[in-house]
Amino acid sequence: MLAQYQVTLTEQIHRRAEKLAKLSGRTIEDMLPVMLILSAPTFTHPLDLDHSVSDLPDEDVLAIANLQMLPETNARHSGLLQKLGQDDLTESERSELNILHRVYEIGIIYQSFALKEAVIRGLREPLEIMTVLETVKQRVRKTFNNHCAYCLSAQQYLMQVLEIDHITPIAKGGTNDEDNLCLACRLCNLYKSNHTHSIDSETNQMTPLFNPRTDKWTQHFRWSQDGFRVIGLTAVGRVTIKVLRLNNETAILTRTNWVSVGWHPPK
């Protein structure tokens, strides 16, 4: 028998959850577990949920612009993502991953606002190149020029280090050979999971996802005129946009901020 509990929320918590819901395009109910996670140390700098980033002092803006998950939270998120790719998540772990993913989304959104604000205040250069302290799979990172192979997000503007993605997942018979590896941001990696194909809505045919090693991005995708959305030019492009949710709410909001300071779309 399941126990039921009634929780009374303060007006402040409800107001904060409502703010996060509007920012992320989710519901207040989705954001309530996020509030619980954020009540404990989660990022390298706490998020001020009661004030706009533009109202924060310079040192806070710069700290959020360089935001990262704390090592223990990041390790847990990465571990759950790995289990997801292996199709080995329990229901409770799947729920935990969904909550951590929402937390990660909020961090990305706040970081993008802080990066924009830092440029406006002259604290950061619009096209500043930051050193990426990452030594694993250097040839793969060089091949993809430190950009996500799917959404083309650049490492220097992301909260987390770009991850090594198995184009054909290990769970689907993929290998660790270099020609099966590419770079992916955490969101693309999360949504791709162990998918390799999907049905294209226009042709109604089962279609393979974009292969960054054998396919050319510009043959399958283009940017919308405002630079906010990825447009599919082919069946491969369309199914990849759908499965990887390349135009999810967080991506759109983040690109909006990047476009405003000249960081996007990639040249």
What does this structure look like?
With 267 residues, this protein is mostly helical. The chain has helices at 11-24, 28-38, 58-65, 71-85, 91-120, 138-143, 186-192, 217-220, 235-244, 249-260, and strands at residues 163-166, 181-184, 197-199, 206-208, 221-223, 230-232. Strands 1-2 form a two-stranded antiparallel ribbon. A hairpin with a 6-residue loop joins β5 (221-223) and β6 (230-232). α2 crosses α5 (91-120) and α4 packs across α5. The chain is globular and about 50 Å long. Residues 127-134 have low confidence and may be disordered.
SSE layout and pairing:
Elements: H1 11-24, H2 28-38, H3 58-65, H4 71-85, H5 91-120, H6 138-143, E1 163-166, E2 181-184, H7 186-192, E3 197-199, E4 206-208, H8 217-220, E5 221-223, E6 230-232, H9 235-244, H10 249-260
Antiparallel strand pairs: 1-2, 3-4, 5-6
Helix pairs in contact: 1-2, 2-5, 3-5, 4-5, 5-10
Task: List key phrases describing it.
267 residues, mainly alpha, two-stranded antiparallel sheet, two-stranded antiparallel ribbon, 10 helices, globular
* Helix-and-strand structural type: mainly alpha
Tell me what portion of residues adopts beta-strand conformation: 5-15%
The residue-averaged pLDDT reads 85
Instruction: Kindly provide the radius of gyration, computed on alpha-carbon positions and rounded to a whole number of angstroms.
Output: 19 Å
Poorly predicted regions are 127-134
Shape, principal axes of CA atoms:
globular
